UniProtKB/TrEMBL annotation:
Family annotation (InterPro entries): MFS, MFS_dom, MFS_trans_sf, Sugar_transporter_CS
The name this protein goes by in its record: MFS transporter
Keywords: Membrane, Transmembrane, Transmembrane helix
Localization: Membrane
Main location: membrane
Protein origin, superkingdom: Bacteria
Organism of provenance: Methylobacterium indicum
Amino acid sequence: MVPTYSAGARLDRLPISGFHRRILWLIGAGMFFDSFDIYLAGGILGALVKDGWSDLRLNAAFISATFIGMVIGSFSAGILGDRFGRRFTYQANLMIFGLASLAAVFAPDMWSLIVLRFFMGVGLGAEIVIGYATIGEFIPPAQRGRWAAYLSIITNTALFAATLVGYLVIPTFGWRAMFAIAGTGALAVWYARKSMPESPRWLESVGRTDDADRVLGRIEATYGAGLPTPRHEPVATHADPGLKVLFGRPVIRRTLLATVINVMINVSIYGFVAWVPTFLVKQGLSVGSSLGYTTFMSLGGPVGACLGALIAERLGRRNGLTVTSLVAALLGVAYTLAPSIEIATAVGFGLFTCIYLMVALGIAAYIPELFPTEYRLRGTGVASTAGRIAGIFIPQGVVWLYASGGIVPVLIMLVGALLLQAACVGLFGIETRNRSLEELRPGHDPALAPVER
């Protein structure tokens, strides 16, 4: 009787190699242009108003169209990615936002641009769900959290890149050139990704074991002889559990935890990070000064992602998220007590760092690990959808809170969200560090005998 090793066991035994680095760059390139397309909105909307193309009302419609599209994209990616595969879905979403971005170059009026932005949003919302979930299906357990953080680093560089490119391009070539750059980049990545393999874990989960074996054979052939023997793992089931599995025992606890993490991180970003320039102007600073201080704070984004790569496999995801949430809450309190703008900026840098460290540990690494392969994208998609919906309404809450008492009520909201996240992860989370994705299945019994035939 020859043991049949699962796709997960065969992938997990592979040493990190050029194959893994290629997967990282192919996924990372798509997510970079995804984030670039999201962040270019700030510079473009200002240029549209200046050119007389738009006003504040139409700009608000543009932003709303983006978020509505992202909500639909996040949810749809979860359904389609589990049903038709990771490869099909990430290629489809790149095509959607790439073509929509190029079409925006030729938009005849603002309403046409708003409609096209909705379609961009569909693709943009899908990419985050697929990218972070897919990278983890290829990387061995001892490195999985670190490589998810690497992907977060690549993604977070897009904020600085979009700001810099907008500064250089928009005054000379106009706002249309920004959409041309984003669309061309997305379609170039779409072409490069055509050679990227389907996830063997997903192929096995839907019963396509021969296809999974062929993909694994090609990957293993690049290593030559001398690979370690895979660990025995039960082969994944082939049944499609549907969306309802996320809300039944024992999975609902993980679904709620993933949702809380995604919503609380979105509260942090859209309830604080996105508002810092406005808060500083309201406190009496000039627009130029506020942007200067905010730029310094925003360096916490890549710093936080880099810290994620350093601690993901040391502290673990559960402990790392809990500790980072508590530190961020303390910094939120300190921000309200800062006696000068310089000290507030230093505290703000630390707060930005913690928030983007939570993105690396929580959204990039932890949430996709909570769900088995056959419904990983559905679970990730539902949590992401909840976060996107929160992102639509949080700014309205910030406006109301700020009008009622200035920045202090806003920071009370932020600190409350961070403490809630720390409590939920600390009390109800599981540790995923150095464990295979198959071991993390709800109800997994490590004593199960190997499948043989």
